[in-house]
């Protein structure tokens, strides 16, 4: 089987725990590109949040962002495909969880909107190691819900919510269980909402079909529960050694950790079929 497309998760997979890109990983990606393999970032991040990263790795052509809601061409920034929630869905999530102390964020195709007051105190909302990314990529709005009600904000690819603690997150998750959305998490203190039928797997499927690539010719690499749909969809699903147990169980292979160039190992072993590994 020839791999024609590699989908790579960002946090916990492509990047190490300090959010660094290792030279060995970058080298393997460059070699894959030279061999004619297409590459895509597949992430819960918004298009805005991967802009700087994609500029450092121009060999990666596509971004499957906001957990599959937006597929973008990283070369020109254009949206290839979008499947978004409308104002009614945004209001449903807000009204369900409005009793919580939370940092409510709306992901669009070009920005991330959040309450300006929360943005001024991100540490309170458990953003942790994402603080620098959050502060540098969010647009603060004085009345975020009012902007939705007035029609200023009409759609969201993803809703992300940070809570002050994992306990509060778990309470909110339990309250949200019956809502008609796909709900996942990447951090101990966050919840992410997309349309029920939207996830990394559907985003990868739409990209592959637009490129004429069959799922048997796709490799997907990830570590977290929002990576499960793409790992299950791809012909070769790869879990990181640092990944969740359920991700490892679903994968065809387990590679090394993100601290030990796991993405590079997977590409060289499974795509290049290097015998020395």
TrEMBL record:
Signal sequence bounds: none
Pfam families xref list: Hydrolase_3
UniProt xrefs under InterPro entries: Cof, HAD-like_sf, HAD-SF_hydro_IIB, HAD_sf
Gene Ontology MF terms: magnesium ion binding; phosphatase activity
Matching SUPFAM superfamilies: HAD-like
Gene3D superfamilies, per database record: 3.30.1240.10, HAD superfamily/HAD-like (3.40.50.1000)
Protein name (database record): HAD family phosphatase
